[in-house]
Amino acid sequence: MSGGGWVWAALMGALAIAYLTGMRRDGMTGSKMVKIAAIWVGIILGAYILVSWLTGMD
To answer: Which residue, 32, 40, 43, 57, is the most exposed by fewest CB within 10 angstroms?
Structure first.
């Protein structure tokens, strides 16, 4: 993975962690957290694939 790919993954990972931390503070636990985490992984992976396809980033 190129440097841009690592930066993208780190940024999206930090965003997901911040979001999930906020959800935990609101009282969400258990299987809902796992489902939201899976959705975030799908969104991040889909966005990465779309951006890499559009820009030619590898």
So the answer is: 32
Q: What is the pLDDT of residues 2-40, one digit of tens each?
A: 777 788 788 878 887 887 787 777 777 777 777 877 887
Please give the residue range of the domain that contains residue 35.
3-55
d(CA 52, CA 3): 13
pTM of the model: 0.53
In angstroms, rounded to a whole number, what is the distance separating the alpha carbons of residues 13 and 30?
Answer: 20
Please give the pLDDT value at position 58.
Answer: 61
